[in-house]
Amino acid sequence: MALLIALITCFVIILATSQPCQTPDDFVAATSSGHIMIGGLFAIHEKLLSSEDFPRPPGIQKCVGFEISVFLQTLAMIHSIEMINNSTLLSGVKLGYEIYDTCTEVTVAIAAALKFLSKFNGCREITEFKCNYSSYTPRVKAVIGAGYSEISMAVSRILNLQLMPQVSYESTAEILSDKIRFPSFLRTVPSDFYQTKAMAHLIQKSGWNWIGIITTDDDYGRQALNTFVVQTVANNVCIAFKEVLPAFISDDTIEIRINQTLEKIIAEAHLLEVLKNVTFTDGGNSFHFDAHGDMNTGYDVVFWKEVNGHMTITKVAQYDLKNDVFITTDQETKNELQNLKQIRSKCSKECSPGQMKKTTRSQHICCYECVNCPENHYSNQTDMDHCLLCNNKTHWAPVKSTTCFEKEVEYLNWNDFLAILLLALSLLGIMFVLAIGIIFTRNLNTPVVKSSGGLMVCYVILLCHFLNFTSTGFFIGEPQDFTCKTRQTLFGVSFTLCISCILTKSLKILLAFSFDPNLQNFLRGLYKPIPIIFTCTGVQVVICTLWLIFAAPAVEEDVSLPRVIILECEEGSVLAFGTMLGYIAILAFICFIFAFKGRKLPENYNEAKFITFGMLIYFIAWITFIPVYATTFGKHLPAVEIIVILISNYGILCCTFFPKCYVILCKQDTNTKSAFLKTIYTYSSHSADSLAMSHVSLDSTHSSNTMTRPSSGGKPAARQKSRDLQTQALEHTFKENATSASKTWSRKRNLSI
């Protein structure tokens, strides 16, 4: 069996070698001998004649459908070679050509490529296959063609075996620029990458985003389609439909081919590297191959126009692929190119600035609705996919805004009506303080001033009120680090000093008019005015100092509001702020307790009652302040604390000094030593009588509890005896209490006056 196979193989080889080299007449389009042969591949016929026989015998079928335009290209190649041969360009060297008709069929083109690879001076029907073609000399040195990219790809893969240069005049598929897969391929037309890029640029320039695509069903059409889709999507252009037509159709109403003719044939084209470095000029334009084997020729932009029922083609611009621009020759063609914008090719109406696109249920992103940008968002271009967010810390934007606006910086300004009103009240309080100081200075030796603790204590209290009214000015105006630190410290220390002085006065009043010996001894040991004032105020100074060291108040920008920035003082530590206010409240409560116990003093000397009212006003004001301050925000937040400071300051000032000023100015007859002594004497006598009656009541109760019940027969005598005993006890008790009251009055008068 093996021997039979070997005999059959040898017979086939002998028969094949004995056959003469024959080429079908309709396969070879044109041929001419020469020292250097150049191959040509042209689709002179449209297609192969279909065979009804099945299976058909192997071989090259006949071609049908003559293409006059391609035939003219073939003649152009022959004419160019003849011109070179008739010139002195290649002295002593004749160029030959061997041109084949591919019939727009890949199989026929491959058959022609195999003939190109046949050995020089050998039969065209035999192609030798070797592992190394370094010493192999093919009969054809270079190939011109083919026209279709699909055919050029197939032929180039075969010619790559010997790195035979292949120069195409129409193949524009982008994949042919890949020098790894097609190292010997060159072309005189740009890549489809630039063609699709130019088309996408023209569509974007015309303002279209809703288009359809028609392409051919071959490698050229499919690759161009993929590249074009990527570039249009990058430009936010949607594909309404894709229509794929059969490849290699010649109907001029469907497909218009733009053919470029080979300008010159360089005789030494058998060297691939020489071809890559060739540069030639034509009509003032320079042409050369780039690193991908493509030529920088650009494209012509043409319009199809129907004139009198006939379709005409008009060139309106040229696309410069290097600079990515369209070049027009005159104003008329420029206007025609710009008129493309008047053609509406959009799925949806464009969104104006201040709006954004909202995609509908359609599968295309070009079909959308226009919605207004929400607050704090903006769009400054048409057809924006989304609105841009403003910097909420510094900017804001209304609904449907095209830009962001800077937030206004707000604070309690000096020209604000509320600030002016509060400043007026503070100035009025300062005027009251000055007026009271003048009145007390001019009436220094009167009992009212002396009973207030003396001029020095009054001056200290008035100074504290002055500082409290002054501290309100630090709450108004643009906040600074200095004002933020000063306002709370100044108020806290001055108000504490004021309460400390009033506390010593309350303690003194309670000590002067207390008739309980035990309470007197306790108060006398506790009453140390200067140490009390310095100790109470010193504690507040320590609290404020620690506050300023570890968590000092500072300026802060509140950006939570949509359109404004609130410039305010951040207290630094809520705990320290609360400790400062809480300490003042504790002192005020102690002062209130002492003053409340001395509320029933003589009417002309009833300062404790007014201190009690002042402390009540303070408590009401600051208890109300806590929830109001916690729920208030904005530039008027400092005004809340100013109001509370003014209320508490006015309350204590009025209750402490206004009654005394009233007595000094309006009741001068009561502002004498004798009038005060009379009032205190009446109060002391009343207090002594009350104390005596209290003791008599206690003794009577005790006597009645120790008496024995008499017999029924001696009732009148026993009752009379009991009455006599009670009368004697009452007289004795009254005398003792009167003496005690007289001594107490003498001592209290020395303490009070």
Structure, explained:
By secondary structure, the chain is an alpha/beta fold. It is 48% helix and 16% strand. The strands form nine sheets. Strands 1-5-2-6-7-8 form a six-stranded mixed beta sheet, with helices on both faces. Strands 13-14-15 form a three-stranded antiparallel beta sheet. A hairpin with a 4-residue loop joins strand 14 (310-320) and strand 15 (325-327). Helix 12 runs antiparallel to helix 13.
Distance between the termini: 154 Å
Chain-averaged pLDDT: 75
What is the percentage of strand-forming residues? 15-25%
Query: Largest sheet, described in full?
Result: 6 strands, mixed
Computed CA radius of gyration, to the nearest angstrom: 58 Å
Q: Name the helicity range.
A: 40-55%
Low-confidence parts: 1-23, 255-271, 691-753
Globally, the shape reads: rod-shaped
Structural class: alpha/beta
What is the spatial order of strands in the main beta sheet? 1-5-2-6-7-8
Tally of individual helices: 19
Brief descriptors of the model:
753 residues; alpha/beta; 6-stranded mixed beta sheet; 3-stranded antiparallel beta sheet; 19 helices; rod-shaped; disordered N terminus; disordered C terminus
Topology, element by element:
Layout: H1 2-18, E1 28-32, E2 36-42, E3 45-48, E4 63-66, H2 68-85, E5 95-101, H3 106-116, E6 140-144, H4 149-159, E7 166-168, E8 185-187, H5 192-205, E9 210-216, H6 219-234, E10 238-245, H7 272-276, E11 279-282, E12 285-288, E13 299-307, E14 310-320, E15 325-327, H8 331-338, E16 355-359, E17 368-372, E18 377-378, E19 388-389, E20 395-396, E21 405-406, E22 408-410, H9 417-442, H10 447-451, H11 455-471, H12 481-512, H13 517-526, H14 529-550, E23 554-558, E24 564-570, H15 574-597, H16 607-631, H17 637-666, H18 673-706, H19 715-752
Parallel strand pairs: 2-5, 2-6, 6-7, 7-8, 9-10, 22-24
Antiparallel strand pairs: 1-5, 3-4, 11-12, 13-14, 14-15, 16-17, 18-19, 20-21, 23-24
Helix pairs in contact: 3-4, 5-6, 9-11, 9-17, 11-12, 11-17, 12-13, 12-14, 12-15, 14-15, 15-16, 16-17, 18-19
